[in-house]
Design brief:
Blueprint (H helix, E strand, L loop, with lengths): L3 E5 L3 H13 L3 E5 L2 H11 L3 E5 L7 H10 L6 E5 L4 H9 L4 E4 L4 H15 L7 E3 L2 E4 L4 E4 L2 E3 L3 H12 L7 H8 L10 H15 L6 E4 L3 E4 L3
Parallel strand pairs: 1-2, 1-3, 3-4, 4-5
Antiparallel strand pairs: 6-7, 7-8, 8-9, 10-11
Helix pairs in contact: 2-3, 6-8
Length: about 220
Amino acid sequence: MPTRVLVADDDRAIRESLARALELEGYTVLTAADGAETLARARKQAPDALVVDVMMPGVDGLAVCRQLRAAGDRTPVLMLTARVETADRVAGLDAGADDYLPKPFEPDELFARLRALLRRAQPAGATVLCVAGLRIDPVARRAYWDDAELSLSKTEFDLLELLARHEDVVLDQSTVYQRIWGYDFGADSKNLQVYIGYLRRKLTAAGAPALIHTVRGAGYALRRP
């Protein structure tokens, strides 16, 4: 699955330039023009990392980071700022940012810092995802309920992994289509519903309780029983 990065900056030129550069590096990029939009998109679309400008109107980058951390969201955050004083860097890190990059910066440095954040978010030895009795090994691409291995197609495995990585987060249909298929088939498509059905039947056959929940009008979420 492509890595999704949310870029938040109120300067349209910077925002679009960063988005193009990251897309050329192979990332799927979401954008936001202010803090409120950043929070809304982060909660709805569950990016893998955020690149956030400190100075944004209304809800600034520091407040965005504080609100995400207060809600239990541990998504890596790279702060961007034109301020270079030590006190400003300390403020960003204290707000919960994982790294801090002063402007102007070289794109290669941003890419390197982002890769480092993403690596730290998935440390060695902690690659197996566990939700109740469900275990998913993304490296071996194997999934189990208790001791029963689930026989999953590539798409089924990717979908189950996505839901498990965002436990309790309601992922809307558009987001799932983009993450799994790389294309939004539209509201009328039943493709996702069909694959959710496949997963539910295979989990039930392995003895699992209801794990994948439909949130009417919103999407799907994987929750502990």
